[in-house]
């Protein structure tokens, strides 16, 4: 899901989405826009 906007029922309300980056066995989930600037 890229935008959080529902595309079919039963979902009717959009949800939050987060940027995810995978490095080897590590998964980083950005909870703010600072992740996009290279901060982890």
Task: Reconstruct the topology from this structure.
Blueprint: E1 20-23, E2 26-29
Antiparallel strand pairs: 1-2
Describe the protein.
The protein has 40 residues and is mainly beta. 0% of the residues lie in helices and 20% in strands. The chain is built from no helices and two strands. β1 and β2 form a beta hairpin. The chain starts with 19 loop residues before the first strand and ends in an 11-residue tail after the last strand.
Keywords for this structure?
single chain; 40 residues; mainly beta; 2 strands
Structural class: mainly beta
Mean pLDDT score? 81
Q: What is the tally of beta strands?
A: 2
In helices, the fraction of residues equals under 10%
Shape: elongated
- Strand % is 15-25%
The first-to-last residue Cα distance is: 22 Å
Please mark out the parts with pLDDT under 50 across 5 or more consecutive residues, or reply none: none
Strand order of the largest sheet: 1-2
Task: Produce a short descriptive summary.
With 40 residues, the protein is mainly beta. It has strands at residues 20-23, 26-29.
């Amino acid at each position: 899901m890229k935008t959080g906007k529902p595309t079919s029922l039963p979902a009717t309300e959009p949800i939050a989405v987060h940027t995810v980056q995978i490095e080897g066995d590590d998964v980083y989930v950005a909870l703010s826009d600072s992740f996009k600037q290279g901060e982890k």
